[in-house]
Amino acid sequence: VSDLKTGHFYQFRVFAANATGVGKPSDASEAFLCEKWSMPEPGCPYDLEFREVRDDSLVLLWATPLYEGQSQITGYMLQISHSNQLDNWTILTAKPISETHYKVTGLQTGHTYRFRVSAVNSAGVGRASLPSEPVTVQTQPGTKEIKIGVDDDGFIFLGYEAVKMNDESEFLWSKNFTEPISSQRTKVETTKNRSMLTFTDPSEEDLGVYTVEMSHSPHLSSSYDFTAEDLERLRELSWQVRNPLIALKSAWQVEVSEKGSVRLWLQTESLSSSAELRLVFNDREISSSPRRKINFDTAKGLVEILFDQLSQEDEGSYTCQLRDGRAKNQCTLVFVDQKFREILALADWNRWDIQRKAGPYFQEFLTWSVNEDCELIIQCKVTNTSKDTSFKWFKDGVEIKDFAYDQTSGVCSLTIPQVTKKEAGSYRAVVSDSRGEDVSTLELLDNEYDKLLQLLSEQCALSAGPLRIESTAEGFKIYSSLRYYISFLKTSWYFKGRKIDQEARAKSGCSMQKVWIEILNPTENDKGEYTLEMLDGKETHKRFYELSAEAFAEALLEHQRLKQLAIAERNRAKVIKGLPDVVAIMEGKSLCLTCFIDGDPAPEIFWLHNDREILDQTQFTTTKESKRTSITVNKVTMEDSGKYSIFVRNQYGSETVDVTLSVYKKGEKPPANAVEMG
Known about the structure:
InterPro entries: FN3_dom (IPR003961), FN3_sf (IPR036116), Ig-like_dom (IPR007110), Ig-like_dom_sf (IPR036179), Ig-like_fold (IPR013783), Ig_I-set (IPR013098), Ig_sub (IPR003599), Ig_sub2 (IPR003598). This protein is mostly beta strands.
């Protein structure tokens, strides 16, 4: 009511009106004094209404206060009370809400409630509205909810079905409870008791809460929050409805038969007899030809391309385009590069395999293995042989004879007890007769040879025995015995968990069948645990030895004994070089024999003729030095033939070396095995 004057009293009456006319007026209201609103807080909201009353929730609507106060309204506070407790109000919202509607949840079914609303601005909370009418929280029988979906034409829709209607009932749609529905973005259709709101071109602009209520009974209402997730999901479904796909059971598959033919195929769901197929190869439509047959079974949804003999001309992309009514689909096979080459090679191999099996052929081609004895076994197996079948084996083009061939089983094997570098190479086996020939090759080179060494190293490491100790003249060795050792097997030694580096007192070594660590001049500090680690290229194998006090004492005692023996052997008297076994000289000439000796202290020296010491210095002349001695036989006669010996001795031992002298007359030939002197 506008145009009222401040300070005047007013009364109001209300008339009801319909098509027939205006009815009687109501009683007059109490006198109302018109005065200027001077409160800083906003006025009170009004027209509280309910929508979507359910068993545990409802939606509360209200109108904005006529007076905002001294500043703009920023929100609303809600209060709730049980209908019989009008003096006991509870705040429903912890923070102000910005809308003029609110969904109240967590209510108790069958209970009756009242609500009131207060507006909020910068000055504070205004007066509460008049309490709402009491409302009982309970879902009415037959209540329906808005459903969202996609229709047969691919349009997204919201649908609602009314429980009760009369001839004048209408479906009233709104957005966010107050906004009218845009006729440019939506279309509403009503059929009997069902109403559908269809989106013409849905986008983010259409997101929000959509409400529908019945004109004759607003409490019969429902709402749906149309979210971005719904929009994304239903857009996808809409596209699928408008663009139906023929379902694929299997995408392109490639198969090679035993005879070498190639089959490309795919399968869809069952199609109608009017379904259409278009095959495109490298952007060019293709059809059946003598070298390429195309089959299309609509009932099974099967598409096949058959090649009796695949060739390089068939490399490329194959696209199958299908249409069955409005539904369609297409699938592309990129049949190029490595994938094509592998299939082409397999097809060629299968055709060749059929041909080679007409005569003797390899049932198992050349392979290699390493047994527990660290032996290399190269083996193959032939079949379809006859008595005329020939079997040969080559390495690097040179025929090998020492292989084993069992004609009954067809197994042929070559066993190599110890692998060395010369075993690397190209092995070739050939089986043939009048019906044909077959060849098998094995390239035991590069990476394949490294694989052999790795596996051989593993077997060698597994064959390694437990660590043992052996005393030497220099100290003692801790060692492990193997079938045999190869350098590919990397070994490391550890003492008390720390790696032993090459140093003056510790030296590692190996032989064909043993690996060791030698400890020189051992001391008490060398007692403890020793570990041998063997790396075969993949795994590490370990052996352990605990050098206890008792074992150390025994090893040390033996070391000292061997050391004394070594000293004695080093210092004993010995002849080190100079004398041949047999010498020959012509009668009448003089003979001089010289040899070198060693020993500490300097040894005594004796020359013997036929085991008797030579004392005659007329026929025989001897010289004796600390490291050298010689004997001269002057004008040799036939009687001077025989055995001559050099005998040396000192406190550590002695040694005798013999030489046989053969004297021959002039004109005779000396013995063939003699060194001719003179």
